[in-house]
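1st attempt posting a full record on here, be nice pls
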Amino acid sequence: MRLDNYISDLLYRYECVIIPEFGAFLTQRKGAQVHQTTNAFYPPSKVLSFNAQLSSNDGLLVKYIADVTGKEYENVLQKVQKEVASWKQDLDNTTIVSLENIGDLSINTEGNIQFEPSYHVNYLTSSFGLASFVSSEISRVTPTSEEIPELVAVEEETPVIPLVTTKEERSGFRFPWKYAAAAAIIFSASVFGFREYQSNQQVVEQSKAQESINEYIQQATFFGNNPVELPSITLQVAKEIKNYHVVAGAFRIEENAHTKVSQLKATGFDAALLGKNRYGLHQVSYASFATREEASEALIKIKQTEAPEAWLLVTE
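the predicted structure (as tokens):
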């Protein structure tokens, strides 16, 4: 049985696919990138990695193969174990195990499994149809001082109209300067008086408004014998959503799942039953978190102190 096709299908939908008694393939979202040297543009993608410590069977892979092939769960589990045994034998013989569209597995000098991911498939569904491409570098030309045209200042000539008066005009027309001065004084006094009046009106209005406010405050503060019922205030507080769960296990029998929750709570964990997944297994979490950072820190601690087979589940 070739497992790489089934593993590849699950990597599109899950961040962790465990191969029982072997290890787990993990995915992590990676943003779009630009290569500074080759000017190549890469769309957002999922980066594959392998963790040999996550080898406990969570039922995801075996149940998926059973549903696709229509075979019994136990029968599929035996075939998976047989394929895993073949992989381990190849690795012991220093043979590279190549999984199509996933990557190559080999043994390093320290005797650990080394994984080299394949970059032929992008498992991020939101980037479907986006391919990498190379764009030529844009050359920017800065013009020299000789190419910049000189700015020529144009001074417009203002026409000068000569003032010519005759003796008759000087004697026949005299501008009434004294009347103009008197009119200016009267206009200035009117404007000043209007501004003073407007200012006094504003002071009066402000005083009336302040008195009304003080009277309202007194009525609201000192109820006396007839208390006034104030309107109630309803506050809407956003509930913190916790989509990151450190999974302790998945159980086919619900009673076993509840027993596991009680055991974890007795040891101090904020354990909870996450419900039944699409494969009919009841998942139990050590704790749930609102951010990936908090969940990752808790997962590392739990794997070191409690259960190496614990894994991270992300729900929408």
